Amino acid sequence: MPATFFLWNAQTNSGAWLDLKDLPPSPRELPEGAICWIDLQSPSPNELERVFTQFLPIHPLSIEDITRLQRQPDEAPHFSKVEEFPDYLLVIVNPLEPNQLDSESGCVHGQFSAVLTHSVLITHHTGDSILTQHVRESLQKNPQQANRGPDYLLHLLLDYMVDQYAPTVDTILEELDEIESIIFQEPNSATLNRLLLLKRRIVHLRKTLIMEREVLARLIRGEFELVDDREVAYYRNVYDHLVRYAELLETSREMVSDLMQTQLAAVSNRLNGVMKGLATISTIILPMTLISGIYGMNFEFMPELKWVIGYPLALSMMVLAAAVSLYFFRRQKWI
């Protein structure tokens, strides 16, 4: 998809999406009061140079951080951070990639980068981004939103990103409730495997949310000139949502640990029950084995071997020994 940019013209009170070739040489040549949002989706080297070298020159280290996944697709995305430079603000977050799972963590995070100035917002991502799609649709319905500035557009992107965590957190909580029911009904090894996978997923997601929480915490402190005071309240609302999801994940992490202990205890109790049953059977059979062993010896002078009632007497003694053992176990409430 070719790179495009949204230009809000305050003089005509209108906005439109334009091709990158129509981008002015620098932000200074934008119309007075204009707001520009450039969306780069897996841009080509020429597009990167056009935007980050000619239109809005940024530090080479910033370009390296922004294009990390594009240059090294097999590497992990850059961790979330906010960094202030003399002319711009760099924000990197890790939104959830929809409909993707990972065998290690259970979820896949992408990288979404934003460069913010007083009149320009530049976003960079590899592949389609539900964040930009959502804000594009919002601007089509109400383009006047762009008049509030690039910091407000960035808030819209971050707000929608945080909202995408809600279904994932709800799914985790529902799965925990399901596993809890299974553990109390019929614990098995498959349940423990599910708990281990879910724990990795929670830990991975919690780590991402904690880093993004630090990013938003800095944005709401008012320490950045490029984030207007009137927009801080909106960022604070996003921060509150993120904190709530992080707390739910912390609760889920503790619940997973408790369920793992409960699972192991349930399996141990089940094993104890099996061992108890086997021990009971062995103890009942022991005197019977003793009697049969005595009369199975090959000694010549054993008077009982000549008795007519010897065989039924031995069987009766075995049954009596088993009955006495069983009665004793029941009296002691061992079975």
Structure description:
The structure is a single chain. The chain has 335 residues and is α+β, with helices and mostly antiparallel strands. Among the domains are: 145 residues, CorA soluble domain-like (Beta Polymerase, domain 2, 2-Layer Sandwich); 55 residues, Up-down Bundle (Methane Monooxygenase Hydroxylase, Chain G, domain 1). It is 56% helix and 12% strand. The chain has a seven-stranded mixed β-sheet, with helices on both faces. It starts with a strand and ends with a helix. The model has no long low-confidence stretch (mean pLDDT 86).
Can I get a quick summary?
With 335 residues, this protein is of the alpha+beta class. It is built from 9 helices and 7 strands; from the N terminus they run βββαααββββαααααα.
Give the arrangement of secondary structure elements.
Blueprint: E1 4-9, E2 14-19, E3 35-41, H1 45-55, H2 60-66, H3 68-71, E4 81-84, E5 89-93, E6 112-116, E7 120-125, H4 130-141, H5 150-163, H6 165-185, H7 189-219, H8 229-294, H9 310-331
Parallel strand pairs: 3-7
Antiparallel strand pairs: 1-2, 1-3, 4-5, 5-6, 6-7
